[in-house]
Design a protein that fits this description.
The chain is mainly alpha-helical and 86 residues long. Helix content is 43%, strand content 5%. The chain has one helix and two strands, in the order E-E-H. Strands 1-2 form a two-stranded antiparallel sheet.
C-alpha cells in the first residue's frame, strides 16, 4: 500500500499552485486499532510475497544448474540436430 499526500498542482500550467489540506467532514482520522489491523495485513502479505520470491529463486537456480550441465541444451529437443538420421 502506498500512502502519499499531494501538496501542489503542476499540470495544467494555468492551475499551478498549492493544494489546501482539508479532511472531509464524513471522514475522520484512522483509529489506532485500524492502523494496527492494516499493518498486520501488510506484514502477512509481505511474508507471502517473500515465500513466493524464495520459491521462484530456487526454481531459477535449479533451471540454471540444468542449463549449466551438459545434460540440457537448447537443441536437445530438435530431432534434426540430435540422434541418428533416418
Amino acid at each position: 500500500m502506498i500512502q502519499a499526500k499531494a501538496t501542489r498542482i503542476l499540470w495544467p500550467p494555468n492551475r499551478w499552485g498549492k493544494i489546501a489540506s482539508v479532511l472531509p467532514n464524513e471522514r475522520g482520522p484512522l483509529a489506532l486499532s485500524e492502523i494496527r489491523h492494516l499493518h498486520e495485513e501488510l506484514e502477512e502479505e509481505n511474508s507471502k510475497l517473500h515465500k513466493r520470491l524464495d520459491a521462484m529463486k530456487r526454481i531459477e537456480k535449479e533451471n540454471s544448474t540444468l542449463r549449466d550441465n551438459d545434460q540440457f541444451h537448447e537443441y536437445a529437443f530438435l530431432p534434426e540436430k540430435v540422434g541418428p538420421h533416418i
